[in-house]
């Protein structure tokens, strides 16, 4: 029997065309945060769409991190047409993640969604998205500034208010904290079975959990992987996720 095995966290890859060839890629900042903040072993999963063997993936997984991406969830998954054809889509990733999310929650595999991953979880549970938050009445512009400086793109720009008595409030020990903001889309209709955990000042939902989940099942719209070791609220999320992954290891031994 293996004791104290390092948890394995799956990261669904983006399907990306680089030059003449397609690649399966994942952002270094997510991989690094899994290692340094969740104390887990990241394993990048190719975006094979409907060809992915979900049952086999869940046999391997002690946790799943759904990372952010350049692409958006295809709006056909929430019964809308594409609003802006210039924005990138990733049908292969949709075909993997939208099947994986519900199966993972049912199998009691811890799940953390970030940005696109947050939106994927909402869509997987039957919710819909604003395809352009900044063009929605009453909403602020949540996109990052047009600058090559990453420190400016990922700077903390607005507060989020956690829901009293919620999981995120308990996890972070805070009713309000600052976050970065790098997204053009966001939750419109909340998915069935999801619970809002935090809101932006304009009322946009910024965090959700899965009601009744038997383990960690949380997603956030901002990017807690950025400077995670130096940002207490961000670190608290990854520590809680990592602890849930380690608990799954113990149960499986």
From TrEMBL:
GO terms for cellular component: cytosol. The keyword Transferase applies. Pathway: Amine and polyamine degradation; putrescine degradation; 4-aminobutanoate from putrescine: step 4/4. GO terms for molecular function: gamma-glutamyl-gamma-aminobutyrate hydrolase activity; transferase activity. InterPro entries: Class_I_gatase-like (IPR029062), Peptidase_C26 (IPR011697), PuuD-like (IPR044668). Gene3D superfamilies: 3.40.50.880. It catalyses: 4-(gamma-L-glutamylamino)butanoate + H2O = 4-aminobutanoate + L-glutamate. One of its GO terms (biological process) is polyamine catabolic process. Pfam families: Peptidase_C26. Keywords: Glutamine amidotransferase, Transferase. Its EC number is 3.5.1.94. Belongs to the peptidase C26 family. Involved in the breakdown of putrescine via hydrolysis of the gamma-glutamyl linkage of gamma-glutamyl-gamma-aminobutyrate. This is gamma-glutamyl-gamma-aminobutyrate hydrolase. It comes from Sulfuriferula nivalis.
């Amino acid at each position: 029997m293996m004791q104290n095995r390092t948890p394995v966290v799956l990261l669904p890859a983006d399907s990306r065309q680089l030059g003449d060839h397609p690649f399966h890629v994942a952002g270094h900042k997510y991989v690094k945060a899994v290692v340094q903040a969740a104390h887990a072993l990241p394993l990048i999963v190719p975006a094979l769409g409907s060809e992915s063997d979900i049952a086999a993936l869940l046999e391997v997984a002690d946790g799943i991190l759904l990372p952010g991406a350049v692409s958006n969830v295809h709006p056909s998954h929430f019964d809308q047409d594409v609003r802006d054809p210039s924005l990138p889509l990733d049908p292969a990733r949709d075909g993997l993640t939208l099947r994986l999310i519900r199966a993972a929650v049912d199998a009691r595999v811890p799940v953390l969604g970030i940005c696109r991953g947050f939106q994927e979880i909402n869509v997987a549970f039957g919710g819909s998205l604003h395809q352009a938050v900044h063009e929605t009445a009453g909403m602020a512009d949540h996109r990052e500034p047009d600058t090559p400086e990453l420190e400016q793109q990922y700077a903390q720009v607005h507060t989020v208010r956690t829901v009293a008595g919620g999981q995120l409030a308990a996890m972070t020990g805070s009713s309000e904290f600052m976050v970065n903001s790098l997204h053009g889309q966001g939750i419109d209709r909340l998915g069935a079975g999801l619970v809002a955990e935090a809101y932006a000042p304009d009322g946009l939902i910024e965090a959700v959990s899965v009601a009744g989940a038997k383990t960690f099942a949380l997603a956030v719209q901002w990017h807690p992987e950025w400077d995670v070791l130096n940002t207490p609220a961000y670190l608290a999320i990854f520590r809680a996720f990592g602890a849930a992954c380690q608990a799954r290891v113990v149960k499986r031994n």
